[in-house]
Write a structure and sequence with these properties.
374 residues, Glycosyltransferase family 4 protein, Glyco_trans_1, Rossmann fold, alpha/beta, seven-stranded parallel sheet
Length: 374
């Protein structure tokens, strides 16, 4: 299908523009959605990653920024309303808390406004949850990234949301062996040493503290040598580094900071460990499955929507460092099991999270509501 010159405009709204789940969703949907809509995205705050802006430009998505601080909601509302009024918009699609609160109030009356809930209700502050509830009545439609997210917001009073999973493009995670080996060389990890990987913001929700305790216990029972790379930034970074030192893990755990080469990290890893306390839809775990890396994840509701314990990976109870350590020990000492789980996980992602499939769901939602009154 060729791209129409006179496409209607689809405007995504984000709190900020930096690498993470939301930009990656918009990016992966573009090959299909971009044939039907001229796609833009606007951030309430400043742009933090110019290279990502350039990548979006290359695939036909225009990025805008309003330059508002996180705490200045009135200014964000004023600038967003002014900005949206200057565009001939067909669809506004808002993501995250503040953007989703403001979009129904700031979009032109003739524009259809949709929002996606990316996390369970408890992952937001009470004022944000209440704000979304108050402005929800003016939305055209709403989606949730998992059934667990949908269930949590129904309990809070927001209904009629469709569940649409995040897209994961398996082709992005085809990394050759030589490229993956550069990761081991960077961190001086020998080829015969097993590599564990965790990717995510360094926050309480992601439970890297539990992972460190599990690794400390694993060191005491593990015959084979191993290393752990934790990739990401966040408010708990110094606390986690101090905990690793306290546990004597300075030579076992590497804090890699923010990384743009997550695909290489995944390709180099033997096991992806994801012990989160709560999630909306764990995109990085799905990316690990797409890369053919076995996943060990916490037993939270969203996990069970895509990972079958003992078939496509392993799950372990939340906040249980001992069980997490035992599961790691199990996987580290069973290569055949790792390979079997990894293959099953990759096949599942390819079948159910293909960007083309997810994009068609969004197009159906947009177009199915276009003739309804706002």
């Amino acid at each position: 299908m060729e791209i129409s010159v006179n496409r209607p405009i689809l405007m995504h709204i984000q709190n900020h523009f930096q690498r993470g789940a939301i930009p990656h969703i918009i990016r992966d949907l573009q090959p299909v959605v971009g044939k039907h809509y001229e796609v833009h995205t606007v951030a309430l705050q400043d742009i933090k990653d110019q290279t990502l802006v350039d990548e979006f430009k290359d695939i036909g998505i225009t990025v805008h920024a309003l330059g508002c601080s996180r705490w200045n909601l009135p200014l964000a509302a004023f600038r967003l309303r002014t900005f949206l009024s200057r565009k001939n918009l067909a669809v506004v699609h808002a993501h995250a808390g503040r953007g989703a609160m403001l979009a129904p109030l700031c979009a032109p009356v003739s524009t259809k406004v949709f929002t996606t809930f990316h996390s369970v209700a408890s992952g937001f502050s009470f004022p944000t949850r209440k704000g979304r509830l108050l402005t929800d009545r003016w939305l055209t439609g709403r989606t949730c990234v998992s059934e667990a997210v949908n269930e949590s917001w129904r309990a809070f009073g927001i209904n009629n949301a469709a569940t649409v999973y995040n897209p994961v493009d398996v082709s992005r995670y085809k990394i050759d062996t030589a490229a993956a080996d550069t990761v081991r060389k960077e961190f001086n990890i020998p080829e015969d040493v097993k590599l564990l990987l965790n990717v995510g913001r360094l926050t309480f929700a992601k439970a890297q503290d539990v992972l460190l305790d599990a690794v400390a216990a694993l060191k005491k029972q593990q015959n084979n040598d191993f290393r752990l790379i934790i990739a990401g930034q966040g408010p708990d970074e110094e606390k986690l580094k101090a905990r690793a030192k306290e546990l004597g893990l300075e030579e076992t755990v590497y804090f890699a900071g923010f990384r743009k080469d997550v695909q290489k990290l995944l390709a180099a890893a033997d096991i992806f460990v994801f012990p989160s306390r709560w999630e909306g839809l764990p995109v990085t775990a799905l990316e690990a499955m797409a890369a053919g890396t076995v996943v060990l994840a916490s037993d939270i509701k969203p996990t069970k929507e895509y990972l079958t314990d003992g078939v496509s990976g392993l799950v372990t109870p939340v906040n249980d460092a001992k069980k997490l350590s035992d599961c790691l020990n199990n996987l580290l000492n069973n290569k055949a099991k790792r390979e079997r789980f990894a293959a099953a996980g990759q096949a599942y992602v390819r079948q159910y999270f293909a960007p083309e499939h997810i994009a068609r769901q969004y197009l159906s939602i947009y177009e199915g509501r276009m003739n309804e009154p706002k």
